[in-house]
Design goal:
Length: 203
Amino acid sequence: MKVECYGASRPRDGGTGNEDAFWIWRPSSIVAALCDGAGAAQHCAAHVLRLFARQIEGGLLQVQSFPAWAHWVRSTDGALAGGSETTFVGVAVVGDRVLGAYTGDSRAYLVNEGGCRILSEQSGRRIGTGEAEASPIHEPLDPHDTLLLMSDGAWTPLPLTIIHRTVMAARMQDFADLPSMLIDVAGKHGRADDMTVVALRRR
């Protein structure tokens, strides 16, 4: 099974920094994560992703087990409580399924010919509040399905119909361009917030 995964991020109009960050790991299987820092917190988003990357690269986080994801979120939240805050949404491709977790208002979507569906309905508290609790992502990943991770700056301007239409229109183009295409559509009237999109597709 071949899985493609790419991401793109742009700061808000006039912004001097980007509070969003994303990370993609490809060595044996695909793992991807996105964070959106709150309130001049770009260092928090990047820091949390570095912590996550160490767990994945070191084989310390068992991605096929949601309790492992939930434990990592709780322990990271406890370590950062009282400081800067960040959302988290992360997924791993395990066989023909995608597994992961999220907390905060960054979103995951599953897009295919049948439509576009939000996989992260309950937003939860951000990491750093001391009250973050992970919610699970556990979905079949069929051929030609596209999974999106999006920060609120990217998803807020886009109804499900526009996300679906953009993904379907991009099917015959280079998949690496899809994250930037979604950001272009979301920001066509200006970027009021940092925008980040990670796109993953099973071929």
